[in-house]
Amino acid sequence: MHENISNSGGDAEGALSARLVVILGGARSGKSTFAERLALQSGRRVAYIATALASDDDMRDRIARHQAQRPTVWRTIEEPLQLATTVQEAALHADVILLDCVTIWLSNWLFMQGDGAAIQDDAVSAQHYDSALQEISRLLAVIASWDAQKTLLLVSNEVGLGIVPSYASGRIYRDILGLVNQRLAAAASQVYLMVAGLGVDIKRLHNEATI
Q: What is the 3-state secondary structure (H, E, C) of the chain?
């Protein structure tokens, strides 16, 4: 019952006046570099929303490397959970907002839901699906309120091409992220799939299926 998302979410998701660009790919596929290049080439004011938490030494190193690569004139906002309100705040100061990334946001969000063992309960799992997609709907409603001069670049991972996770929380995470990506892609003007550092605009190549 969670698979049909193309027509869900109301008018805010169907007719965005601002531009939404989604950049998808696997680990180390060049997603962040590609998104940063698009933002830099725009020549406009940029705000960077970072969802990562410095939870260990490796993540702290990753965050530091990303920070060093970004132009110092970009406004950086660190927010692990509140996508819609943070994107709205960023739009007050910038014309291009780069959110990196949805994947880590969802991980943070699921962690905040509480007892990991409860995620195996069907009713609890359904609540996770619905609550996460509601946050995405709020995000898309914010974008729909912008004028056409605003652009949101969203980075997210494609995690559905590997093996099925052996634990319930991993499967729920994979499934929710897949639905989130579908909803974002349906609303986006451009969707890039990153392969070995190369971006392919798969929305431009997409044709509606017929029989």
A: CCCCCCCCCCHHHHCCCCEEEEEEECCCCCHHHHHHHHHHHHCCCEEEEECCCCCCHHHHHHHHHHHHHCCCCCEEEECCCCHHHHHHHHHCCCCEEEEECHHHHHHHHHHCCCCHHHHHCHHHHHHHHHHHHHHHHHHHHHHHCCCCCCEEEEEEECCCCCCCCCCHHHHHHHHHHHHHHHHHHHHCCEEEEEECCEEEEHHHHCCCCCC
